[in-house]
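Honest question from a wet-lab person: if I give you the sequences of every part of a complex, can you actually get the arrangement of the whole thing, not just the pieces? Trying it with mine:
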Amino acid sequence: MENSFPHHGKTLTRENLLPLLRATDADLSALYARADAVRRENCGDAVPIRAILEFSNVCANDCLYCGIRASNPDPIRYQMAAADIRAAARQIAGEEIAGTIVLQAGETPGASDDAIAALIRDIKTDCPALAITLSVGNRPRHVYARWRDAGMDRYLLRFETSDAALFARLHPAGTLAERLRCLRDLQALGVQTGGGFMIGLPGETVETLADNILLCREFDFDMIGIGPYIPHPGTPLSHAPNVYADDPDMFFRAIAVLRLATPLAHIPATTAFDALFSDGRDRALQCGANVFMPNATPRPYRRAYQLYPGKPCVDEEALNCSRCVQHRLHTLGRPIAPGPSHSLKMKSDSHVLNPDS
Ligand code: 5AD
Ligand code: FES
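Yes, you can. This is the full assembly:
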């Protein structure tokens, strides 16, 4: 297998990427070992922790795969009060485990834009050392700029699939071009930007997966979140299985090949891996992923934020998740990275990291 991955980073072509996505047995262990080594060389062993706060499940969109799509009447809709979000941020900062808070919600363009800017400012005032990542969907550039000016450090927005026709089928209200425009705007504004995609969407092929990985490299994202697509019973895709349902190694191959293709990206072991395998996130951390994102949403809301079924930790308290992370990483022999762990691509002088300034 050595000769099958002579390349990584920019020299990995579509031609030598495809066989890696089809690796089996002995080749597979060699691929994981190589990806793990590339992760160690480029990111180190310490694992940045990003605490996710799912502060609202209200959503105007109707993405065909998503459990909180507007047309699903099942989830009880909630919106956390600003004071409660602020208190949750203070608690996260106080624990000193996560150096980043990820504020995630459904997409409600317009209505919440000013409130979100105020929230970012308040959290930065309370917790100046905590990095803020926002993840609330497509917006015009001027709104992203306003949030950046308020103190937002990073933004997560997966492009979901690089296949424009598939994207259009899955998203009644948007196009891939529009999603990519948002990602370019964020990068141009100097916001650390995270893209990514789902693995195994109905209608995709291994070639799509290769193109997804290549698109991540083309964008040179700071962070790349990928995870298996999981059919949700309350959606039109309830009976559309994951394309790789019979080949679950594909989810880990995807992480490994992504690491080879984008050595300096922060790649989280995403929650959906744990929905499919009890040790899914631990395995992802051993074949290329370097970031862990525990759920920090208050327990009463967790059940209502199920984008897909089988999401772990819905019955846990936020504190349990942070203890669980410590235990899991200890078992893997991986220390927790201190501080906000900004992009590995940033020049050291391009960002103010001093919390006292
Ligand atoms: N299965 C897996 N991932 C999903 N997401 C949304 N719905 C599903 C699903 N059914 C992912 C999307 C989105 C992220 C927040 O959650 O990739 O960008
Ligand atoms: Fe939530 Fe383990 S990360 S209980």
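Two things worth pointing out. Confidence is low (pLDDT under 50) at residues 348-357. The pocket of 5'-deoxyadenosine (ligand 1) is lined by residues 65-66, 158, 160, 198, 227, 229-230, 232, 272, 307-308 (CB under 6 Å).
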